[in-house]
Design a protein that fits this description.
Blueprint (H helix, E strand, L loop, with lengths): L2 H22 L18 E2 L33 E2 L2 E5 L2 E3 L2 E4 L3 E7 L8 E2 L17 E6 L3 E6 L9 E6 L1
Parallel strand pairs: 2-5, 3-6, 5-10
Antiparallel strand pairs: 1-8, 3-4, 6-8, 7-9, 9-10
C-alpha cells in the first residue's frame, strides 16, 4: 500500500461519514411538502423575514412561550439578539427573545456554516451557506421555541435553540 492509496481511502471514508451524518440527521431533506427552503422564510441580512412568514403551524414549537422546552445543548437560555457562529458552535447556544425580536447570526470564522431550523419549532428557516463575515437575520413573531443546527456540522454538536416569549 502506498501513500496515494491511503489518501484516497481516507477521502472515501470522510465522504461516507459526511453522507451518513447528513442523511442520519435528516439534514437537507424534508418530509413536509410545505417546509420552507432557503429564501422562503429565512432572509439574508437586510431583508425583513419573520418567523410567521415561514409556514410554521400555529401549534408548532410548544406555544406556551417556551417554558417547557429545554435548551438543546443543555444549560440555561440567555437574553440575546445576536448569535456568533465561531469555532464550530453557536455562541450563545440558547437564547430567549420577546416576540417581534430580530435575531442576527454572524459567522466570525473562516469555515462556511448554515443556520437551519429543526422540524417542530415555531419557525422554518435555512440561511444557506454563510461564509466568513456572513450574516443571517430572522424576526420571531410567534411565542414558542425552535431548535436549529448547522447542516454540515450539526451531528458534531453545532446546534442551538431560540425560545420566544
Amino acid at each position: 500500500m502506498n501513500d496515494s492509496t491511503v489518501v484516497v481511502g481516507a477521502a472515501v471514508l470522510w465522504l461516507a461519514s459526511m453522507s451518513a451524518m447528513l442523511l442520519g440527521a435528516g439534514c437537507g431533506t424534508s418530509d413536509s411538502a410545505d417546509a420552507a427552503t432557503a429564501g422562503d422564510g429565512g432572509q439574508p441580512a437586510g431583508d425583513s423575514g419573520t418567523a410567521e412568514d415561514t409556514g410554521a403551524s400555529a401549534d408548532a414549537g410548544d406555544t406556551d412561550g417556551g417554558a417547557a422546552h429545554a435548551c438543546i445543548k443543555g444549560g440555561s437560555a440567555v437574553a440575546a439578539t445576536a448569535v456568533t457562529v465561531k469555532n464550530f458552535e453557536f455562541d450563545p447556544p440558547c437564547i430567549t427573545v420577546a416576540r417581534g425580536t430580530k435575531v442576527t447570526w454572524t459567522n466570525t470564522g473562516m469555515a462556511s456554516h448554515t443556520v437551519t431550523s429543526d422540524p417542530g419549532g415555531v419557525a422554518t428557516f435555512d440561511s444557506g451557506a454563510l461564509g466568513a463575515a456572513g450574516t443571517f437575520e430572522l424576526t420571531f413573531d410567534t411565542a414558542g421555541w425552535v431548535d436549529y443546527h448547522c447542516i454540515p456540522h450539526g451531528a458534531g454538536g453545532m446546534r442551538g435553540t431560540v425560545i420566544v416569549e
